[in-house]
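go over my protein:
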Amino acid sequence: MKDKVLLDTNLWVYLYSQNSPNKSVKVRELVNNNFTSIIISTQILGEFYNVMTKKKLKPQDEVKKIILEMVTNFTIVEIDVLKVITALEINSKYGYTYWDSLVLATALQHNCNILYSEDMQANQLIEQKTIIINPFLVTPLQ
């Protein structure tokens, strides 16, 4: 059984905006290699929509179609009180922003062994359970 993984919002933006072709190709590879193991939170869907439409990376109707495709193809998890409380604990312990801590809380509570993100400390192990991997580094752990 493959490890469950969570991709941070910025990776989805790279994939669908294609503003950075090399990063887009790398994220497509990650998605293809982990297709059945990917978890997406409602937080990430909302952040993705906000970034894509606010920065006018794609038309609003196209972003809606992308999100519908995401919710059809991947496991979607909702933000709940336990994740919020866990995020506050992660924020205090590790110093991440609340929003990054909420992404980490989601990864932890859904047994994701890997969180792919370029915005957090690469190769940091959170709560002895979830490792943060920057997929754009030359030799990421996998």
The radius of gyration is 14 Å. The CA atoms of residues 2 and 19 lie 30 Å apart. Residues 60-73 form the longest helix (14 residues).
